[in-house]
Design goal:
The complex is a heterotrimer of chains A (263), B (268) and C (162). With 263 residues, chain A is an all-alpha fold. Chain A has ten helices and no strands. The model of chain A has no long low-confidence stretch (mean pLDDT 91). Chain C is of the alpha/beta class. Chain C has two domains: 1-32; 39-142, no CATH class. Chain C is elongated and about 105 Å long. The chains are: A mainly alpha (263), B alpha/beta (268), C alpha/beta (162). Chains in contact: A-B, A-C. The A-C interface holds A 48-49, 51-52, 55-56, 59, 84, 86, 95, 99, 156-157, 159-161, 163-164, 166-168, 170, 189-190, 192-198, 201-202, 206 and C 1, 6-7, 9-10, 12-14, 16-18, 20-21, 23-25, 27-34, 55, 57, 106.
């Protein structure tokens, strides 16, 4: 009985230490990436290539999801606002929820699923097939040559994707509100413009998506870089990328929002 | 002293608390092709990584060109590695680059040569391995033997003075194997380089190497020229060279006594 | 993929993303509807500002002429001290009236400026002396009930007199 307790306590302790150790590894990896970023910024062609894979290839899923999210927001918002006789405020509702929250957050979640998993699987397979070792033996640092360009591509792509998401979402809301529900077009836009603040809403949204870009990309890169070089290891790392990115995005969202509202 | 481009002195290395090498000494003279042989899991590949500075020894040292590898900082190790080329077990070609770009990779990373010169050099290297026509293919479109040859072209892209081969014959058909054997020998002699070949293919290796080290259980058990070893009376070498199933290297993985193991099962 | 097409796609993507950001700022946000460049600051004290918030519009004759910059509580007069930023293009007489209005029955509150007739105009740092407080719904209702009650009382008196 006593032995059993000690054993399970030891198990918990082991797991906690393991987590913290991995967190430390991830932090060190992040720092190394930043320090070794010089080359990826000097030879920007490397980063442009990766922007194509993370940004451009995520466009379709981002735009289609945004359209539907915006349309649903329009429908649901209209239903509720109508009860209070202020259905013109639908533009405000759609725009504020997109710009402040849904744009950055849903984009980051979709990004983790689309681009993050691709990054993890690619880097994990490069490790498994010894491509990273080969690079090291050629006196090329894989963090500078492989990781850093992908990192900057993710960080650059994410705010742009989030902006496109918000814009497309507002357009979806507009499609539902104006032609479908017959809300006055002028009221839709003017109410929106009167209540969406550039500094407090739009800039804060961009800051959020920038932070999410850093978090999602570095998690995906770290999981791939750290994955055991086996098929099972890579597949597990890919799953962990989605889980950890999603948790990180939602947690960071809460922290950032509470900072932004209290200031 | 100076004619040994790589020296391994009294090297020990442990991994996960398991002692993999216990005091290994090896000499790799300039211009020679030297093979390191041993069974699977005897830490042959690890030796190459120690020479390349990817791992640190727990005791002893590896000297490359007179410099102790593990005492170098990152820049120093990179400086040493520029003189090395390595052929990985399955080629380790960059899957997102074409054959041409794979071979051009080290040149683009380490030199400021204009693209036209790089093109000429890449075609020269690809021609040497007979794959000039395959320059636009992607690695996924190559057969195992072709991938190995492209990787070889990439390994010698910067005309290294040390070329390391990690299991260059694994998983190849006899024709491709013959091609690789010829390439290793001819590239070594053409470049005036030193080649270190890690393999367990005795018959292939004995055809072209100058010197052989046999590694088993973390120590060098035998060394010599292929002719000396072929006539060797040492039980291990004899077993290895003639491919016998049982001998000094046991057929069975360490286990309790067979009879007792079975009896114990009956008692449960 | 060909290098040039790749560059092209990334170019399109980045341009579209930047355009979306600008679109958000211009079309969705208030960057265009808030063209107040050069401003001057005036203050006004109110006994009660109701639900007025900073960044609320300042309107005169229905036109937005500025924004509420800052709201503070004056601990000596026990009044709310509201700082207004007004566009340099608009000048108001010294005896301008500042009111707090509500747009619609439940809408947001804003500061309305009713111009007076003074020759001298408000300058940076001036204080508007004529102010009217926000209408507080509870006060209005209790006033209404009080009036009704007193009306009812009078009625009863006349009835008993008859």
């Amino acid at each position: 009985m006593f032995n059993h307790l000690v054993k399970s306590l030891r198990g918990i302790g082991h797991r906690v230490i393991d987590r913290i150790w991995r967190l430390g590894c991830a932090a060190r990896f992040f720092l190394q990436t930043l320090v070794l970023s010089g080359e990826s910024l000097r030879r920007f062609g490397l980063t442009i290539r990766e922007i194509y894979f993370t940004g451009v290839l995520s466009l379709i899923i981002i735009l289609v999801s945004a359209l539907f999210v915006g349309m649903v927001l329009g429908l649901q918002g209209y239903n509720t606002l109508q009860k209070y006789g202020s259905s013109e405020a639908i533009g405000v509702l759609v725009a504020l929820s997109l710009v402040r929250e849904l744009g950055p957050v849903v984009t980051a979640l979709l990004f983790a699923g689309r681009a993050g998993t691709a990054i993890t699987a690619e880097i994990g397979l490069m490790r498994a097939t010894e491509q990273l070792s080969a690079m090291e033996m050629m006196a090329v640092n894989p963090i500078a040559r492989v990781v850093a360009p992908r990192f900057w591509a993710g960080v650059i792509s994410m705010p742009l994707l989030a902006a496109l998401f918000s814009m497309m979402g507002v357009f979806g809301g507009y499609l539902v509100a104006v032609p479908l529900l017959g809300i006055d077009e002028g009221a839709f836009w003017s109410q929106m413009q009167a209540n969406v603040d550039f500094r407090e809403d739009i800039v804060n949204g961009v800051i959020k998506s920038f932070v999410f870009g850093i978090a999602c990309t570095i998690i995906a890169l770290f999981e791939g870089y750290d994955a055991p070089p086996t098929a099972e290891g890579v597949s597990r790392a890919t799953t962990r990328t989605v889980v950890n990115s999603s948790l990180a995005v939602l947690g960071l969202d809460f922290v950032l929002t509470s900072f932004m509202i209290s200031v | 002293m100076t004619d040994n481009i790589v020296e391994i002195n009294n090297l020990s290395f442990s991994y996960n608390n398991r002692l993999l090498h216990k005091g290994i000494n090896m000499r790799f003279p300039r211009g020679k092709v030297v093979a390191i042989m041993g069974g699977s899991g005897s830490g042959k590949t690890t030796l190459l990584r120690l020479i390349g500075g990817q791992l640190k020894p727990s005791a002893g040292e590896v000297r490359v060109g007179g410099k102790v590898v593990h005492e170098q900082d990152r820049a120093g190790i990179y400086q040493l590695r520029r003189k090395m080329g390595m052929l990985f077990q399955f080629g380790a070609l960059f899957t997102d680059l074409s054959v041409f770009d794979n071979v051009a990779f080290p040149m683009r990373e380490h030199t400021n040569l204009p693209e036209s010169v790089i093109r000429d050099l890449v075609l020269l290297k690809l021609n040497a391995v007979g794959l000039r026509g395959a320059r636009d293919l992607m690695p996924s479109e190559l057969s195992g033997g072709m991938a190995r040859r492209v990787a070889l072209a990439r390994a010698v892209a910067l005309d290294p003075s040390i070329i390391m081969y990690d299991e260059p014959f694994a998983g190849l058909d006899p024709i491709s194997m013959g091609v690789i054997v010829n390439l290793i020998r001819s590239l070594n002699d053409a470049l005036g380089a030193t080649s270190i070949v890690v393999t367990h293919d005795v018959h292939e290796a004995f055809l072209f190497v100058d010197y052989v080290y046999f590694v088993s259980a973390g120590v060098v058990v035998a060394e010599g020229t292929p002719e000396e070893l072929r006539c060797s009376e040492m039980p291990f070498v004899h077993q290895f060279v003639h491919g016998e199933a049982d001998g000094p290297v046991p057929f069975h993985y360490a286990a309790p006594d067979y009879r007792q193991d079975m009896l114990r099962g009956a008692n449960v | 993929m060909d290098r040039t097409t790749l560059d092209l796609w990334v170019g399109i993507f980045v341009a579209a993303g930047v355009a979306a950001l600008i679109g958000l700022a211009m079309k969705v946000g208030n960057l265009t509807s808030n063209p107040i460049g050069e401003t001057y600051t005036v203050t006004a004290a109110f006994e009660n500002i109701g639900g007025l918030k900073s960044r609320a519009p300042v309107k005169s004759a229905g036109v937005v002429v500025g924004r509420v910059d800052n709201i503070q509580f004056d601990n000596e007069t026990f009044e709310a001290l509201v700082t207004l930023k007004i566009d340099k293009h608009y000048n108001f007489p010294k005896d301008t009236f500042a009111n707090i209005y509500t747009s619609g029955l439940l809408g947001e509150q804003y500061v309305g400026l009713d111009a007076g007739g003074d020759e001298v105009v408000l300058k940076n740092g001036d204080k508007i002396t004529h102010t009217q407080d926000a209408v507080v719904l509870e006060k209005m209702i209790s006033q209404f009930l009080y009036n009704k009650a007193s009306e009812g009382g009078e009625k009863k008196e006349t009835e008993t007199a008859q």
